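Q: Here's a chain of 168 amino acids. Please give me its 3D structure as tokens.
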Amino acid sequence: MNAPVPPPLSSAPIPRVVGVASDHGGFALKGAVAALLRGAGHTVVDFGNSALEPGDDFPDYVIPLARAVAAGQVDRGLALCASGVGASIAANKVPGVRACLVSDTFTAHQGVEDDDLNVLCLGGLVVGGALAWELIERFLAADFLGAERFRRRLAKVAALEAGAIPPP
């Protein structure tokens, strides 16, 4: 089976307000992608950490980012830690956040188009700068398609977050 080919990027992506957050494991990558985001015309809101601190904890930065995404204070979020796993776990604890650890271009755009992904999680010690930037470009260029089946699925997730779906 042939892998799907990612759609071409638009030559002029819509400028977005992008929140970024990382602990020590994603600190270097966060700095690099923040500079690229600004250079591409996006507004960057940095939720920290503002200095490299080897003993810091990703929830201290990722949770404020996730809350800002859920509140609509930023359009999208980028959460980074060493592997991206912890950042994803923490971000998904905030109702209204749909975060995913992504390492391929298809998922970077399809997650937004079908599932309204609003926080992209990356591992600063896992993906290199070039791949990270390509994933971020795909994530930011994509829009939720809003098909009925996608909205229906997201309504079920929102009901779960609100406690309206009891356990079996």
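Q: Can you summarize the key feature?
A: The two ends are 37 Å apart (CA to CA).
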